[in-house]
Amino acid sequence: MNSVTATEEVVPLNDLRRHADALAEPIHAATMRVIRSGWFVLGPELEAFEREFAAYCGANHGVGVANGTEAIELALRAFDIGPGDEVVVAANAGMYSTTALLAIGSTPIYADVREHDLTLDPEAVRHAISPRTRAIIATHLYGRLADVVALRAIADSHGLAFIEDCAQAHGCSRDGVRAGAWGDAATFSFYPTKNLGACGDAGLVTCRSADTAARLRRLRQYGWGDKYVVVDGPARNSRLDEMQAAILREKLPHLEGWNARRRKIAAMYAAVETTALRYPDVSGADYVAHLFVVRTSHRDALRRHLSARRIASDVHYPVLDNEQPRVDRRDLSAGLPQSVRAAAEILTLPCFPEMTDAEVGRVCDALREWRS
Ligand SMILES: Cc1ncc(COP(=O)(O)O)c(C=O)c1O
What we know:
The chain is of the alpha/beta class and 372 residues long. It is built from 13 helices and eleven strands. 38% of the residues lie in helices and 13% in strands. The strands form three sheets. A seven-stranded mixed β-sheet has the order 1-9-8-5-4-2-3, with helices on both faces. A two-stranded antiparallel sheet has the order 6-7. Pyridoxal-5'-phosphate is lined by residues 67-69, 93-94, 96, 139, 165, 167-168, 189, 191, 201, 203.
């Protein structure tokens, strides 16, 4: 029965005030530490965070950059990918990889995703490879690790760079190996809503080889070798500042706890029995519940049902990359049937660590009451 009253608070999709409140004091102290140091860009806080975050991922190197989109762009540039090159990507991942590819003049070649987890289908990737292909970007969508073993093997057998987009997947793992340690390079966003989020924009690239790391350090700062002397490029200015690095260092020790809470919430949702919805698989360490996304062929009705119970929802993402303006639509002869179907059926429910048990209970009740 619906017991919602008109005055009941909305269950939000996220609430960054709660998140910030819980850590207000250490964040304030970290901020003041940087202000008093007088060192604001490329200093000791960033060096420490790069080390600590790479170690957390089990990656050899970490290079901080300005955001997750430029992390992808710089990773591609570090492998000398540019105009005329093709890169295989998914079309359902929010346009981020495509934006990076368009920025360097490369062509995104879209491969379909798997029905059960909406990450790149290795078979479709194999078909998308041409003599011009230089890399595969696997997006770990919604916090789910893609099929890294199969994709890595395909990349290796064709001599391609394998890049993970881990913006939604901080801390997820398979066989004890975390996101960020599978690829030749892996990119992270610390946008405030991410599982590990800054108080502003921030990003990072992890990578295997010291040469790639050194290149990334040049490419994030004008292509400089020594100061003012350009030795590499085309480059950018894309730096993670000391304030954000200091804040991220305070937050990193909490990431595991936050991920555990996210996964617990996801498990509570998935335990609500219904035949009217499809849930993600929430059982493994390869899912860190960045977003809890259900599927239904009656999405608008479900949104109305939730909204009547004052529960927020959203669609990640309503438009496939290949359907966005300025994107080359060629080479989709095989179509993207799973991506197209998913875009019409997906709906994101609130799932963030600071949700109260009462809020989680309200979402569970709404799922229980849902009849399509
Ligand atoms: C999968 C994915 N890749 C890349 C990005 C880009 O990150 P940013 O917003 O920091 O540029 C995001 C998030 O915004 C994302 O969700």
